[in-house]
Design a protein that fits this description.
Blueprint (H helix, E strand, L loop, with lengths): L10 H5 L7 H17 L12 H13 L4 H9 L2 H4 L4 H7 L2 H14 L7 H15 L2 H16 L6 H21 L3 H15 L1 H35 L5 E7 L2 H10 L11 E7 L2 H14 L8 E2 L12 E6 L5 E8 H9 L12 H15 L3 H6 L8 H4 L24 E5 L5 E5 L4 H8 L1 H5 L1 E6 L2 E3 L11 E5 L9 H4 L3 H13 L2
Parallel strand pairs: 2-5
Antiparallel strand pairs: 1-2, 3-4, 4-5, 6-7, 8-9, 8-10
C-alpha cells in the first residue's frame, strides 16, 4: 500500500480565500509566500512536514477571517526573524515598515511564557493587549496558535497539556474578547480534546446524537415558522441554525449535574429581521402560536448585555413534544454579535452611530484597507475600548464578560522575570516593588538589580517590557529609605515588618 504524498502549499489555495483583496494586495501576499518559502527551506516540524506549512496555514486562517494583505503577509513571515537568518533590514527592503512592525510584535508575544502561576495569568492576558500596540499583532498570534493546536498530536503529552492549558487560560479568552468566534470555539474544543480526552469523547458523542435529532426537528419547525411569519406579512427575514460548541456544552452540563436533557440551547434557530419593529412583531407571532417556556424570555434588545450584545431569546414548546430556543435580532445586531467587536463595548450612553464607527475602525485596521490604517498613528488607531480589554476579568456562565472594572492601563506597568514570567506593578514602581512581588525573602535580601541586562539603581522607575533580575545577599536588609521608593502596599508592609524586627 502506497501513501499519497501530502499536498504542498500552493499560493492559489491562499489567493482563493482573498476575494476581498485587490490586485496589489494579492501581489504583495504572493511575494511574501515565495520569500517565506525560501527562508524556511529545509526546516521541518515535529510532524515531519516542511516548516513553511505552518506559516502558510497561519496566513490561510488570517485570509479566512478577512484580514488585509499586510496582515496576511505578516502571517507568512511571522517566524522569519526568529527562526531564519533573515534580518529586519531585509524585511524593510523587500516589504514595508508596517509588516516589519507586525512581525516584531508577534515575535515579542511569542516569547511570553505561561508557567501555570495563577497570580500571573491575568497579568499575561493584559500584557498581550497592553504591549501589542496594534490589535492586528494579537490576531496574527491567535491564528498562529490555532494552527499549532491543530497539529498538537505530534508533540509529547507534557507539551500537549501545557499548550492546551495556555489556550484555555490565555488564548481562548483573548479570542472571545476580540469577538473572534471562529478562533475562540476552535481553540477551546482543541484544548479540551487534549486536557480531558475522555470527557471530550463523551461530550462529542452526546452532541452528535442530540445534533442529529435536533437538526431534523429544527428544519421541520423552520418551515412551519416561515409559513406563519409570511401569513402575518413578515417576509423580509432570514433564518439560520446555531450549534453549541463541545467545550461550552461540557461546561454547561457540569453546571446542570451532567443531565443533557436539562439543556435547551444545544441548538437554536435564529431569525434575522430587517428592523427592531419586526423583531418584536415576530416574537408576538411566535408566542401567540406556540407556548413559551416560563422564565426563558430574555429581551437583550431593550436591555442589552453589558458587552453590548443585542437579541431576543425565547424558548417555546412546539406542540409535538419538542422544545426550541429562538433568537431574534436585526441584521446589524447579528453582524455585531458575530463579529464580536461590540462585545467589548458598553452601550450605556452610546449612540448607534458611535458603536458602528468603532466597528468600522476595527474593520479598517484588520481588513483590506491597510494603507488607511497606516495613515493613522499607533495611538490614534487604538481606541479606548480596545485598551479596556485588559480590564475584563472573568467570563460568566453564559459567556458574558463582567462589567469593566476601574481604569487599569494608565496605572500599571508590565515587566518580566529573566525566565519570562510577567509581573504587573503600579506605574513608577521600582526594582524593590518587583523583588517583593516575587517573594518577601527576595525583597528583604535585595542588594542590587539589573534591568535589561544592565546594573540599575534601586530608585529606577520600571517601564513596560523591562526584564528585571534581582541580586540578593543573605546579609542584606531593607532600609527606611526604601519606603520612599516603593509603590506597592505589599512592599511597604514587608519593609515595615522587617524594620520592626531589626529594632
Amino acid at each position: 500500500m502506497t501513501i499519497a504524498p501530502k499536498k504542498q502549499p500552493e499560493i492559489k489555495d491562499l489567493l482563493d480565500k482573498m476575494g476581498h483583496i485587490d490586485f496589489d494586495g494579492r501581489k504583495l501576499v504572493s511575494k511574501a509566500f515565495e520569500f517565506a518559502k525560501k527562508a524556511h527551506e529545509g526546516q521541518l516540524r515535529a510532524s515531519g512536514d516542511p516548516y513553511f506549512t505552518h506559516v502558510f496555514e497561519t496566513a490561510k486562517i488570517l485570509a479566512e477571517i478577512g484580514m488585509g494583505p499586510n496582515v496576511i503577509s505578516a502571517g507568512l513571515l511571522h517566524d522569519v526573524l526568529e527562526d531564519t537568518n533573515i534580518t529586519e533590514e531585509e524585511v524593510i527592503k523587500e516589504f514595508n515598515s508596517d509588516i516589519l512592525f507586525l512581525i516584531q510584535g508577534v515575535t515579542k508575544l511569542g516569547k511570553l511564557k505561561y508557567r501555570g502561576l495563577k497570580r500571573h495569568t491575568e497579568s499575561l492576558r493584559k500584557f498581550f493587549i497592553a504591549t501589542s500596540k496594534d490589535i492586528r499583532v494579537v490576531i496574527i498570534r491567535l491564528a498562529d496558535r490555532l494552527h499549532n493546536m491543530e497539529t498538537l498530536q505530534y508533540l509529547p503529552r507534557e507539551k500537549q497539556i501545557r499548550k492546551s492549558t495556555e489556550v484555555l487560560e490565555i488564548f481562548s479568552p483573548l479570542a472571545y474578547r476580540l469577538g473572534m468566534r471562529f478562533i475562540h470555539r476552535k481553540l477551546e474544543d482543541l484544548a479540551f480534546s487534549y486536557i480531558n480526552p475522555e470527557e471530550f469523547e463523551k461530550t462529542s458523542k452526546l452532541l452528535g446524537q442530540r445534533k442529529k435529532q435536533d437538526m431534523k426537528f429544527l428544519e421541520k419547525f423552520d418551515r412551519s415558522l416561515k409559513k406563519k411569519l409570511a401569513e402575518e406579512k413578515i417576509t423580509n427575514f432570514t433564518t439560520n441554525f446555531r450549534v453549541k460548541s463541545l467545550y461550552s456544552l461540557y461546561q454547561k452540563m457540569n453546571r446542570k449535574g451532567g443531565e443533557i436533557e436539562k439543556i435547551y440551547d444545544i441548538t437554536a434557530l435564529r431569525i434575522i429581521t430587517k428592523d427592531i419593529h419586526d423583531c418584536y412583531k415576530a416574537l408576538g407571532i411566535i408566542h401567540s402560536t406556540w407556548k413559551p417556556l416560563p422564565g426563558r424570555l430574555k429581551d437583550y434588545i431593550a436591555l442589552p448585555k453589558t458587552n453590548g450584545y443585542q437579541s431576543i431569546h425565547t424558548t417555546i414548546f412546539t406542540g409535538d413534544g419538542g422544545i426550541v430556543e429562538i433568537q431574534i435580532r436585526t441584521k446589524e445586531m447579528h453582524e455585531i454579535a458575530e463579529m464580536g467587536v461590540a462585545s467589548h463595548l458598553s452601550y450605556k450612553g452610546k449612540k448607534t452611530k458611535d458603536v458602528l464607527s468603532q466597528i468600522a475602525w476595527l474593520k479598517n485596521i484588520i481588513s483590506k484597507n491597510d494603507e488607511a490604517s497606516k495613515a493613522l498613528s499607533r495611538e490614534e488607531k487604538t481606541p479606548d475600548w480596545i485598551k479596556n480589554l485588559g480590564k475584563e476579568i472573568d467570563v460568566e456562565d453564559e459567556g458574558v464578560m463582567e462589567d469593566l472594572k476601574q481604569d487599569f492601563f494608565g496605572h500599571r506597568v508590565f515587566v518580566f522575570t529573566p525566565s519570562g514570567d510577567v509581573i504587573d506593578l503600579p506605574y513608577d514602581a521600582s526594582p524593590i516593588d518587583f523583588a517583593y512581588s516575587i517573594h518577601s525573602y527576595i525583597g528583604n535580601h535585595l542588594t542590587g538589580a539589573k534591568i535589561n541586562g544592565k546594573l540599575a539603581s534601586l530608585d529606577t522607575k520600571l517601564k513596560n517590557g523591562d526584564i528585571v533580575e534581582i541580586i540578593t545577599k543573605k546579609s542584606a536588609n531593607p532600609t527606611r529609605k526604601w519606603l520612599d521608593l516603593v509603590k506597592t502596599s505589599e512592599a511597604k508592609r514587608n519593609i515595615r515588618a522587617k524594620l520592626k524586627l531589626d529594632k
